[in-house]
């Protein structure tokens, strides 16, 4: 077994690189000041690329798995741990710092650049996260985090060795220079990901381009500035490896659009009709207005199934409208389906829809499938739409402004929605309700996640809005709002849970004297729904607050 640290026999060429002691000056093709600048510039670029890889994994895991706090914690903690392992492992490469750094950058560029595409492929072509692969993709996420963290951690000791070879200086000064460039690069990478890469290139192309930059800069530094530290064989190997990595990444970039279309069809089926990335989320429509049932997916989560959505929206809207309802506020509901049910009631004077994503409401206004489904609700002059955060909108709304508030928001289990199911949020809703006003909240499936459902109830009560619970069974579990990855099957919720709240305990009833009556709901079925929901009660739960979320 050959010891890489042992000196080569006299007269024999080094196999990989030229080992140099700590005091041996590196032969450089440029002046030391220029060389030092180039090394620090490489540190800057590598740090930016490394942070993009981290954020890419966090974002992709949040989109595909849900619960962004958990995914961010797993990815970042594993990466930081792995960076420590990588730094320790790189100690053995310090005498071959140039060759070691070149090899590390080539592998990092390939692993980091392809990570998003590999993870999305596993998700798309293994039937989501269920079945045999129930834990496989999560292990793959951890494996990528571990591998990328080890490689990023190995960069620092090797770059420290390279910068010391350019010009010897005290250890504290070298560390300060190195980490200054590293932290500034991380800042640039962290800002570039959400403001440049994600909106303009998307996750797949953004990661591939980052890997390309990473490989090109690492290879340029080693093969250009430190080429005399490498044997001829090592230079050929590094050049070949980097050209291969760049070719793979370039090919994947060229094929990214075709890959994404194929993966989207694997996830959503063959009848994807619209797929747009708005400023907020990915919106996908399947089916058509004249044949196949319409499906609306937001960030991969099935939000509307045209074959069963009426059961959900009638249960959401009709009980809360059995009282004063001239002024109605809908929080969420950008698809226009809740507004459709509201507008069916006589006596409605104004409907304000607060939807954070203007791209969704624009689609609901103009897409023939959605406009057919929502009965052209946004064409009614009584409807006004604003693209605002619901929390901010409530803070700016005058007291007693509405008779009815309908909370048709994403499931509380999705981290971004947690504040919209907090005690503070419901306190704002209570303020904007008229004294005899009523609120209805979609609180997730009562049977599948009773603890979450009854935590919403506890939060309402803590805000002074006692509630009555009811649930409606889905006909085929096809419409599965919330963070579930499957549209149907054993893992999908089979009911929708609702909470009807007011300043005084409200009566759960339907106004059957008005026409048109709901098609899927009767007073008898509503009473049975309330009894079914009460059987899932989890007593003694504390409310969820902004500083102590419970979901």
TrEMBL record:
Annotated ranges, domain PABS: 247-491
PROSITE patterns for this protein: PABS_1 (PS01330), PABS_2 (PS51006)
Subunit structure: Homodimer or homotetramer.
Membrane topology category: Multi-pass membrane protein
Alphabetized GO MF terms: spermidine synthase activity
Origin: domain of life: Bacteria
Keyword Zinc among UniProt keywords: no
Ranges annotated as spanning the membrane: 37-65, 71-90, 102-127, 139-159, 180-201, 207-226, 238-256
Protein name as annotated: Polyamine aminopropyltransferase
Keywords, ordered alphabetically: Cell membrane, Membrane, Polyamine biosynthesis, Spermidine biosynthesis, Transferase, Transmembrane, Transmembrane helix
Catalytic reactions on record: S-adenosyl 3-(methylsulfanyl)propylamine + putrescine = S-methyl-5'-thioadenosine + spermidine + H(+)
Residues binding spermidine: 313, 335
Function field: Catalyzes the irreversible transfer of a propylamine group from the amino donor S-adenosylmethioninamine (decarboxy-AdoMet) to putrescine (1,4-diaminobutane) to yield spermidine.
Enzyme class: transferase
Active site per UniProt: 408 (proton acceptor)
Residues that hold S-methyl-5'-thioadenosine according to the record: 281, 355, 389-390
